[in-house]
Amino acid sequence: METARGLTELSPRRPSQANLRRAVSTAYYAVFHCLAGAAANLLVGKRRGAAWHRVYRALEHGRAKSACGHKQVMKRFQPEIQYFAETFVILQDARHRADYALEGRYYKLDVLADIDQAENAIAHFEQTDIPHRRDFATHVLFRRRPS
Question: N or C: the chain end with fewer CB closer than 10 Å?
């Protein structure tokens, strides 16, 4: 998050559009890596061996977005996790616009709001009890099969 904020401050006057777009992208990646790290820590433990790296790298952007956007399933999670999931979807869409739809104009206050939202989502997620975070991690990592 420090990097995302720093990108908005690089220019003494007005940040460049490239820096603002990169800050949006960086905010999303902070949320993504928070989830990947939590999944690895919660499912394997904080040992950074081969199994930890496999779980960390198993998180897929599209799969995670789809899981986070599944409204019926997300209702079973605590509000803090629901907020994290909603933010994940919002920021992933914002990152796609920032990285690929270059015709849009970015404003520093809007980008700072995205960064604040990412920070808040991470803080809420990290305050949630371990069993709830673990349940959510399995939800985003594994495809649900009918019983």
Answer: C
